[in-house]
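Lab meeting prep.
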Amino acid sequence: MRQNILRTLRCALVGVGLLALPLTSRAQTVVPLSLDSAVAGVLRVSPLIRQSTEGVREQAALRRASFSLINPGVIVENPGNGFFTVGGQQTFEFPTVYGRQAKLARAQVTLAERGGGLARNTVRLDARLAYLDLQLAEARLRQLQTQD
């Protein structure tokens, strides 16, 4: 999976680098792609970042459901004589269970946020490695062109 991400980042950096090249007009100026702008561009479009952001949102939404009463029931009986009896039924857990569920939900949100930070750092590292690979390839190309 890491190789696929590196390959995608390399393609993205090469694509962004090609977009910076002049196409037909000599009036255009070539602005070199800096490392910071390359990393910022990759962070903006990374599917891994989007996935981690959605994971944080999902865990935050699930946190609100940590206090849920299970098996609510409404009972309607007609013992006869046209008289209806309506009742309700609810099972409760021991009170500490709900506190533990809330604590677990908070921990899952925190874990998802830390996972998002880890994903950002991974994407940043992969983008830097791809940028350095691109610089190395360009330097090799220049060296081979001067040798010819």
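Slide two material, second protein:
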Amino acid sequence: MSCETNPNKAARAAGKPGIPRLASRSAFYLGLAAGVVIGGLFLARRRVAGMVRRLFKSRFQAGQGAPVDPCSLPELPSRTVVKPVSPDRVAEDCAACGASPKSKPGLWYVVGGEAYCQDCAPQAAREADVDLAVPSPAPPPTPESIAPTPARTVIPISASLRYRSYDPLNPDGKVETRLERRQINVRTNRGWIPVRDGYAVWTHDGRETGLGITPMVVAGGDGHLRADRERGWTITHLESGMRIGGPFQDPLEAQGLASILAPFDWKRPAAAFSPEELSAINQAVRRYTAALADTRARRAAEGEGGGQGKMNRLPDDVDLYDAIVVDDAIGGGMVRVIADRGEHLRVMDSAGDVYDIPRWKAHRPDELDYRVASVAMPFDPAEQDETCEHCGRWTGDSTGTTWFKIFGEAFCGDCAPLAAREHDYVFPDDYVLPADEVPYEG
């Protein structure tokens, strides 16, 4: 029996488009967890060291799977937020520059009982230690709040992307994100801890945003902290290790908010954020959370499930030869089954490495697994009611052909290659060789 692979076959597999990206086992090690940022951003602006020491005192009791008490994390109480008023409701001139409301249109603020124009208000707010509210633009698109595309309506691929959103300070800014499995260091009331199960958020053009998506951190019965996917997911500011928003039901929900926040420079330390930016971030989080709550309520009313749910474990009575599964034992990436041996599976990864994993340490890939690997997810059009985001074809009019999910959107077999090129995706057989092409003996 031999596990040796043919060098030429392996080289051809590794040389195909997209394979170096998240390809090897080592590249699939997981990572993230839970901290706290929106309140924490203010923390860094106000004598970080002393306050963090006080806030880091443990104030939760360790129970089996007990969530870490958010109050025990480095977070400050909410600050005062001053809402803007229209000039016609202001009777006094600006206390700083003396401009009258009639001569200077725009947003005015009343800070400390005195009126300020929008140019002078930020300085007054800093001196008064308050925040200025930024008017809310149209609610941001969420994974489910984008209106469905009418059937047979042709839409350019680039205009139909989910998880594209805007900078709250610049409604015209659009960001498309993707996830990368990685270990993330997060901040808790016990200090920094490494968490392997999570994702770093990258823009589509390859820029690291400085954000991570992490499972909730809970305290086990032994008092040790651990990441628990079933408790939800949060967005983490990697620079400070603190939490920004959440919990969300799954990483894709969190990614929707991460795409909205991505235009900000999150690689800065917490103290570098201005009050205006912090206020805008808070509002973006609130708007997205509210929209997501409405979406969940609608899905519940329509009888739909929410979230990714538990992992799709492999059946014991089905031969998995040539199936693509996710390796939870070693790498966390998608692999091809080249021999089903009952309790163990012999698999090959996209780098051409062949090895064995326990059957119970693998699961069928879901949409998130395909998205992380930038691989088009095949599906049967007879089983899903979808419309091709490029040509407008309806799945009900398509029989005998495979459709694909690419970056969260559905595409028919004819349009999928164009969409794959648009988003730098590969197809499953290009990502990892089909089993009958693997030069394996035994």
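Talking points for slide two:
The chain is about 20% helix and 25% strand.
The longest strand covers residues 225-237.
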